[in-house]
Amino acid sequence: MNPLDTILKPKSIAVVGASRCEGSIGREILHQLIEFNFHGKLFPVNPKSDFIHSIKAFPTVSSIPDPVDVAIVVVPREEVLGVVDDCGKKGVKGLVVITAGYSETGEEGKRYEAELGERVRQYGMRMIGPNCMGVINTDPAVRMDATFAPTLPLTGRIAFMSQSGALGVAILNIARQLDIGFSHFVSLGNKANVSGNDLLQYWEDDPQTDLILMYLESFGNAKRFMQICRRISKRKPLLVVKSGRTEAGARAATSHTGVLSARQGLDVATDALLEQCGVVRVNTVEELFDLALAFSKNPLPRGNRLAILTNAGGPAIMATDTAIAHGLTMADFSSLTCHELRRLLPPEASVQNPVDMTPQSDRSKYEACARILLEDEGIDMLLVVFVPPMLINAMEIILALEQLRHKYFKPVVGVIMATEEFFVELNRDHPNHMALYIFPESAVGSLAALDRYRLWREKPVGEVKRFAVRKGAAEELIQEVRQQGRTQLTLEESLRLMEYYGIPVASSITVANRSELERVAKELRYPVVLKAIVPELVHKIDVGGVLVDLRGPEELLAAAQKIAESVTKHRPDISACELGFLVQEYVRGGREVIVGMTRDAKYGPLVMFGLGGIYVETVKDVVFRLPPLTDLEAREMIRQIRGFSLLRGIRGEAPVQMEALAEILQRFSQLAEDMPDIAEIEINPLLVFSQAADFRAVDARVLLSGERGDGA
Ligand code: ADP
Ligand code: MG
User: With 598 labelled, which of 108, 281, 366, 417 sits at a CA distance of 20 to 30 A?
Assistant: First the structure.
């Protein structure tokens, strides 16, 4: 038995703080429990009254003669610990603490919460909350609505967790209007004991739950969340509204990777996390419900080919545009389909996709055409648009479609531009009807989400490879830098670190100043590149610090002169004779990519890949992932950048060796995971070619965390 069963499937409930006072939370919760026909025993607890809501009340939990599974606690904060002790004495194993005034209110509240959490743990209880709005289980064998939301929930197969209590109430309201039913609803509150991850695991195997919805403001343990979701999402769809930004997104950053992740504004780390574990992210609660409708009422499509059936042109055109923008394919009809549609419809109707039946189409036309389309093997999903003309009964058409859609194993959704009264009547008389939307964009967006989720389900899991690398040498290098009191590796050290992890780098030597450069100039193999060593710069080239393709000692020394002049002009703090240089093998040709990493306190390392070079922050063509990267994810990152076609080669160019590039990303991911002391890394550019042997990183920056191990 799962410990959360005590809370979610109780046989007896004590409402501690139950009250006679109309409108008080203690009264409302008791009332909801009765109103929803709780299947077990109910015990109001209140030291000041003998009975509440016509039920005998008890002064304490421990004075209740029967066993108690869960206590719903609504007493003032100062009394909560006493209640916990009393429950402990009684052997109660589950708590739902509605009482607020904890970590959400500041330092004092945090202390109260820590104490509460500790006490609950000592008794071996599980607790939801504090500061939550309660829990619901619609299972006919339980029927528990221990919330103070005024709406009673509908029974369904969706489990919902909400981190916001207020939003939870609103959600229950809207869900009912939309004909969306729940298996469970849990308001998580401050998550002092039961976390979102605990609930996810509970719902993973819950036979009443097919679909999981989440409203989250934060991840307690992001890595764990990812592991759990990766597994569950292969069986049940997970939809999430995640608000709030991550630290990596908000923090001022010193590298391109940091700047790009911050500038992209939206929390790329969260997006990466959710995408990598198959969670469907939506931006608004409205969208969450749109998708919940489609997911809860339809099978997954077998492909992405959409057919649209309509009685008006406008909405069908909008739907078509949206479908294409979402990457759906407008289905090509078989000749049989076209032929049958033509026979059925008036000459002015269109038998191409979208099928415009013209305004006078009635129930029988809708039904016959929908049947023809659903029969067509080349159509994976159907959108029915219905703009009601005055005389034709919309309800009839929906019911006709209702019968049809259960015969074919394909998603069917409707757009019906009808009045509110219509939906009220429909939900009342025909619950569990097909997913209906008012606007074509929401309907198509939801179908597209179904299809994206299908792709996730079909996608192989991939493999995280571990490469043989020189981890020890890398650790030593970092330690040395630390011992010298630095937090930044030199260019030469940064490249060496990459080399330890098997990332190919251009061979380089460092010289301390011009006279040393003169001494070595004759022994070099030309052509070379000369770079000024200026530590705090994002781009050396901005101060004229890089000259390429130098063909001999003379050119090299002239270049050094030129660089020194330019650098000292930009940076008067640097003296020309103390300027150090890096001489590097000149790598001709190739395409420039960037590989980067920033570390977030919560999410850990975040790996970036994109088009590189000196215009990287202008082009901003980058994608992010959280390590460990699987081989598939590495390949996916490469394919996902907008400039992928440049890597694949245009106008007859040979394509870049993608497998070699994917391997570098995986090695880099391993490095990012192995070295928690590194705050940021950036290789820019890595020059990539059609032959793996030609790949070279020519510039790299590595920053260590400000304080050892603080991770940021
Ligand atoms: P920074 O980014 O600090 O300005 P880089 O070392 O990245 O300096 O050099 C800037 C540009 O010069 C690179 O984007 C690349 O186009 C070119 N470059 C640098 N090093 C080499 C090299 N070894 N071979 C060929 N081109 C190079
Ligand atoms: Mg660079």
Answer: 281
